[in-house]
């Protein structure tokens, strides 16, 4: 059991919000407009978490780290962005316990941050639609800095901007990118078991804490 952190940083996709239904809808509609084969939600779910650019590239090539033709990518990304900004939260849902856990931590005096690889315009749209934006003391998106998770820059930036020592922070995420970023920042990491993580079990990466529901944060840091 760790001491209650001063700052809790939440990943967004796969941690606070199950955003895949909207992402998959937008990706497949993009592919349909380009007369390309569709992938479906199950496959697209394994590609989410590294930012929209990598998601679109994976969709165009059918491979996690595929590199499509540059002109095709630019056309597809523009199309995807136009579709997704209109569909960021129509099918997505908050994970059970997300609202309760955030309220509990705020009542405990914790500052809250959102650190995501999602671009700012999409991040703000999702947070606003679920009434979460004003709960965060800081939001660091995928295009806030030049580097994003799995690099530690976003986490260190959030700690610096809120004036909280890294050792008094906690990163909450669902993927290996969250874990690698936290490890590089020398920040404790708690992972949820229900997230995406590219189809792999996050438990195998040995996070500091592992929970099945965000409501367990209430038990982990009781009043």
Structure summary:
With 223 residues, this protein is α/β, with parallel strands linked by helices. The chain contains nine helices and eight strands. The protein has two domains: 141 residues, HAD superfamily/HAD-like (Rossmann fold, 3-Layer(aba) Sandwich), CATH 3.40.50.1000; 65 residues, DNA polymerase, domain 1, CATH 1.10.150.240.
Specify the CATH class of the largest domain. Answer: Alpha Beta
Total strands: 8
Percentage of helical residues? 25-40%
Q: What is the CA-CA span between the terminal residues?
A: 14 Å
CATH architecture of the largest domain: 3-Layer(aba) Sandwich
Overall structural domain count: 2
Mean pLDDT over the full residue set? 95
Identify the strand order in the major beta sheet: 5-4-1-6-7-8
Written as H for each helix and E for each strand, in order along the chain, the element string is EEHHHHEHEHEHEHEEH
Integer-rounded radius of gyration: 17 Å
By DSSP (H or I, 4+ residues per run), the number of helices equals 9
Could you name the CATH homologous superfamily of the largest domain?
Answer: HAD superfamily/HAD-like
| Low-pLDDT residue intervals, each spanning 5 or more residues | none
Strand portion, in percent? 5-15%
What is the name of the CATH topology of the largest domain? Answer: Rossmann fold
Derived from helix and strand composition plus strand pairing, the structural class reads alpha/beta
Shape: globular
Give the biggest sheet.
6 strands, parallel
Report on the architecture of this protein.
Strand 4, helix 6 and strand 5 form a beta-alpha-beta unit. This protein folds into 2 domains: 7-18 and 92-220, 3-Layer(aba) Sandwich (Rossmann fold); 20-84, DNA polymerase, domain 1 (Orthogonal Bundle). A 6-stranded parallel beta sheet has the order 5-4-1-6-7-8. Helices cover 40% and strands 13% of the residues. The chain contains 9 helices and 8 strands. The longest helix is centred in the middle third of the chain and has 15 residues, at 70-84. Helix 1 crosses helix 4 (70-84) and helix 3 (52-61) packs across helix 4. It is globular and about 55 Å long. The chain has 223 residues and is α/β, with parallel strands linked by helices. The protein has helices spanning 20-33, 41-45, 52-61, 70-84, 98-107, 120-129, 153-162, 176-185, 216-220, and strands spanning 7-10, 17-18, 93-94, 111-115, 138-140, 169-173, 189-192, 209-211.
């Amino acid at each position: 059991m760790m001491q209650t952190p001063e700052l809790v940083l939440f990943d967004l996709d796969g941690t606070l919000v199950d955003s895949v239904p909207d992402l998959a809808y937008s990706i497949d509609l993009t592919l349909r407009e380009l007369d390309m084969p569709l992938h479906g939600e199950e496959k697209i779910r394994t590609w989410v978490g590294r930012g929209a650019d990598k998601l679109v590239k994976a969709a165009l090539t059918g491979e996690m780290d595929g590199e499509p033709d540059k002109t095709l990518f630019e056309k597809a990304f523009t199309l995807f962005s136009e579709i997704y900004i209109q569909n960021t939260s129509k099918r997505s849902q908050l994970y059970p316990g997300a609202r309760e856990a955030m309220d509990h931590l705020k009542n405990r005096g914790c500052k809250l941050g959102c650190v995501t690889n999602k671009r700012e315009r999409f991040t703000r749209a999702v947070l606003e639609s679920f009434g979460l934006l004003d709960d965060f003391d800081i939001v660091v998106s995928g295009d806030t800095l030049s580097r994003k998770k799995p690099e530690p820059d976003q986490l260190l930036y959030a700690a610096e901007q809120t004036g909280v020592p890294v050792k008094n922070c906690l990163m909450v995420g669902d993927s290996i990118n969250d874990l690698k970023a936290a490890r590089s920042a020398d920040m404790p990491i708690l992972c949820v078991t229900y997230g995406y993580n590219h189809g792999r079990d996050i438990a195998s990466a040995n996070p500091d804490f592992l929970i099945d529901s965000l409501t367990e944060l209430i038990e982990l840091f009781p009043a």
